[in-house]
Amino acid sequence: MIEVVKSSQSGNGSCSLCRVVLPDGATSVVGVDDGVTVRRLVDRLLQRRNLPCASYDVLVRDALVDCGAPSSALGGREARVERRVVLRVSVGSRAVAVRCRPARRLRHVLRPVLQRYLPAARAPAALLAGAPLHPDTPVAELDGARIRVVETAAAPELALDAADDDGDSLSDVALRLQDDCDDSQSQSASRSSVSSTSSVSESGRVRAALRAGPPLHHHPPDFLDNLRETQKQRLQPRTPPPLPPKPAQRAAPTVV
């Protein structure tokens, strides 16, 4: 029984199990190993659940985990996988990669891009394959799409800078602006919501980081202890139930 409890621990005493919460809400307790990266571990679970997720973030207690780190860093912890949407936006001569949560609307996702690259634009609009997009389109429907931002005077309701009555929708978004002087062929992929590259020698990058919000799923922090105790109880020898008492012997009937 002691060996069962120790089987979930590695040689140095650290836990070799972790719980992973997938984007569809499913949970799985898997083993971790120094030779397996976090990305490889998550990709296996997504493939097993048949969940297509090209871009995602792995968080432990609302802290971002490096997907290239060994999966042993998740030992004894609960990791949450959150889906991310990637858009490719053309703003003038710049190509901007926007990375955000699927629940965001297009106007909110492109707002930091417009503030950075088109601060004086009049009635900017988003086009997809030449057709205008409504500013309130959920970005979950545009994953991987190439969007072009242009200035237009027609259809003011399609302008990205139109008045928005959803004042609290950006309360959980924090903006960070950074300048990057890398050449146009370098592209960065990070947790920031916006990373950009330019065709000229100087390029800029806009990042929109999300504040930590309430967890989508609540799980007890001592789930590994409960798992070990359950395994321990299952492997304990069970005492068979007592046999029912034998019926009292009856006297043989008398034949007259």
From TrEMBL:
Its Gene Ontology molecular function terms? GTPase activator activity
Q: Where is this region: Disordered?
A: 179-256
InterPro entries attached here? RBD_dom, RGS10/12/14-like, Ubiquitin-like_domsf
* Regions annotated as coiled coil: none
Gene3D superfamilies to which the protein is assigned, alphabetical: Phosphatidylinositol 3-kinase Catalytic Subunit, Chain A, domain 1 (3.10.20.90)
Ranges for domain RBD come to: 16-84
What is the superkingdom listed in this entry's lineage?
Eukaryota
Q: Which PANTHER family match?
A: REGULATOR OF G-PROTEIN SIGNALING LOCO (PTHR45945)
Q: What's this protein's name?
A: RBD domain-containing protein
* Species in which this protein is naturally found: Euphydryas editha
